Structures are given as C-alpha cells and as structure tokens.
Amino acid sequence: MASIRCIGLLFVAVMVVAALARGDEGAPDAPLRLGLAGLTHAHVHGALDQARAGRIEITGVAEPNQELAQRLFEQYGLDDALLFPSLDAMLDATQPEAVAAYNSIDQHLAVVEACAPRGIPVMVEKPLAISGADARRMAELARRHKILLLTNYETTWYASNQALYDLAVVRGELGPLRKIVMHAGHPGPIEIGCNEEFVEWLTDPARNGGGAVVDFGCYGANLATWLMRGERPRTVTAVLQQIKPDRYPHVDDEATIVLTYPAAQAILQASWNWPANRKDLHVYGAAGLAQAHDGAHLTVRRRESEAPQLQTLPPRQPPEDGPFAYLRAAVRGEIDPAGSLSSLENNLVVVEILDAARESAATGATISLPQRGE
Questions:
Q1: What single DSSP character describes residue 64?
Q2: How far is CA 84 from each of CA 10, 12, 35, 110, 297, rounded to the nearest angstrom?
Q3: Cβ distance 267 to 260 under 8 Å?
Q4: From CA 243, how far away is CA 95, in angstroms rounded?
Q5: Helix, strand, coil proportions of the chain in percent (round to 5)?
Q6: Domain range for residue 78?
Q7: What is the spatial distance between Cα 358 and Cα 240, in angstroms, rounded to a whole number?
Q8: Is residue 278 in a domain?
Q9: How far is C-alpha 111 from the geometric centre of its chain's CA atoms?
Q10: Strands 83-84 and 98-101, sheet pairing
Q11: pTM reported for the whole predicted model
C-alpha cells in the first residue's frame, strides 16, 4: 500500500476539488463526507456498511495497522487510495465534513487535537474520553474552535428509550423519578468473538480506562444523566470484580455503580459475564414504572391495580434513527444536539461518573461529586 501513497494523495485531492466544483458538499441530500480515525473498534463495521450502502462517503481512513486495513478494505471493497498512515495526512488531503473515531479511548483526545483547529466536527464512540482530564481538554478545544463533539451510543437510537424519556421526563406521567436501573452487558468481548485488535485495547486499562465498568457502565451513566436533565449525581459508589481473571487479568469484568441524587438513585449494572447481550432500562417514578426491554419494546405500568402494557414501537425516523444521519444533520445545522444523549454536556458528566466509579472501587469509599455553584 505504501507504494501507492503519492498516487493516492493525488487521486483524493482531485476528487475533493471535483466535489467542491460540483457543489456536492453540504447539499441537503448529499451523503456525509466522513473521515475515519482508526479501524480497531468493532463498531467501525457500522460506518463501513453505511458507506457500502451509499449513505455516507468515506473520504479517507487513518489507520497505521496495514494488516487490519487491508482486511477491512478487501471486505468492504474500499479503494487503497483512501488509506493514510496518519490522521493529519488524511485530514489535509481529504478535508472531510466530519471525522468519526474508531480507535482506542485514550486516542480520542488526539483526534480532537487534530480536528478542532481545522474546524472539523468529531464523533467518538462511547465513552467520550478515558479520563476527566482528557474530557475537559477535548471540551475546551471544541468550544474554542466552535466544533461539534458528539459521542455515539447504540442505545441512543432505541425507540423504546426515547418513548420512555417522553413519558417520564417530557410529560411527567410517572411522577417524580425515584430509581433508574440500567443493565448493559454480554458474555465478554473474547466470548462473543470481537476482533483481536479490538480486544487488545479493550482489555488494557491504560487504553480503555477499565473493563466492563467503562465498556458498559457508560451506557447507564449516559441514560441516567439524560433522564435527570443533565444533573450530576451527588455521590458515586462502585464495586468492581474480576470473575474471569484468567481471561481478563488486567481489568474488571463485572461492575455495579450506584448513583445518588437528592430524591433518586440510579443503579448501573455492567457485565462481561452474562449469558446473552442485554441493554435494558428500568425507570421507577412515584406514579408508575416503565421498562425499555430492547430497542423496540416498552412496558408501562402506572398503578398497582393496572396490568402492565407492552408497546411495540416502530423504528425512529431520520435523522434520529442512527449516528450517521444524526451527525450529518447536526453538522449541516439541521438539528441542535444540545441536551441530547450525544451531547458534550451529557458526556462530560458521564466521564466524571466513570472516574468516580474507578476511584470508589479502588478506595472502598463513596465519592462525592461537586455540584454546580460549589
């Protein structure tokens, strides 16, 4: 691949100039011109599938692992000219509308450091950052250079979660919220067959920040912060375990995080030990309860005497049905992500919660988070 680098750069440059001349970029119906930072995260298959379907246009891929790149390029029929050895080279040559990060969590900061000064919006895979320090630096760069910085979670696009939010928060039909319980997990990344490059950093605390506590604890932190209208919890208490130390010797594989608010609790259960994948959300209010079982099914019960009502929900409508339609609409100014599950504000709180959870587990203490005005 290295032998075609100069030809590739010329090819991409010509394509960019041609697109600009046609006025394609930013046209309402034109595919989002997206650069990819890394390929090691297994969620990258979602982007590659969208590109193959013509819903996004991949302008370039920055991935130093030539073997991995070759494998995925062949699988998805990508032109070798789209591969670049570094993010800076890809950004300068292709000038994408936005960049999606599919590398390790500790590399998210470097992606924003490269993109923000160039005015390029960024979407990272969950969670936002490996630490609060990195998250705050990313936020400072995004705000200074006025770029969007979004975080993608699978559960953001669940029709059941949105219906639950509308019921409980927008309309207040469950009364004041009292308890939020989120289950997120699967049998484990090795057990479900994640690619070697993904497992390598997912099980490295220096690159992922932890095991199940980060990989799945972030889902509940994201949803609880949304349901609590962006409020920080007062306290965070966590217990982490290594149930399979022979398989995951360096990180936890079982985590429980308890968040307290002035009049509510959230319990986040994260696991690499369950017999099957699950991402379900239970919300209890003073006047009713609702359970989002998966992306499409929601059960609501408003009083003791009322039988549970199971709803089967249709998929959400564009651009709220997936990360790339949403990113395109946000980049082109058609929607405002403020306050959403993807928003920077929400995900700064998520990283605070994960930091506190690791500290709590390490010290055996309950961690208090500073509140606004303190």
A1: S
A2: 12, 11, 11, 16, 42
A3: no
A4: 46
A5: 40, 20, 40
A6: 2-154
A7: 8
A8: yes
A9: 15
A10: unpaired
A11: 0.92
Question: Are 8 and 130 part of one and the same domain?
Answer: yes
d(CA 196, CA 68): 10
Number of domains composing the chain: 2
Number of separate helices (H) and strands (E) present in the chain: 13, 15
Query: The domain spanning residue 257 has which CATH number?
Result: 3.30.360.10
DSSP-derived secondary structure for 82-109:
GEESSHHHHHHHH--SEEEE-S-GGGHH
Whether the predicted pLDDT of 255 surpasses 60: yes
Q: Which amino acid is at 231?
A: E
Encode pLDDT of 148-206 as tens digits: 999 999 999 999 999 999 999 999 999 999 999 999 999 999 999 999 999 999 999 99
331's tokens = 């980049």
- Indicate the helix (H) or strand (E) that contains 11: helix 5-22
Convert the pLDDT of each residue in 294-329 to its tens digit: 999 999 999 877 889 999 999 999 999 999 999 999
Distance CA 340, CA 192 (A): 30
Residue 111 Rama label (left phi>0; alpha psi -120 to 50; beta) = alpha
181 touches 281 (CB < 8 A)? yes
Q: Do 128 and 163 reside in the same domain of the chain?
A: no
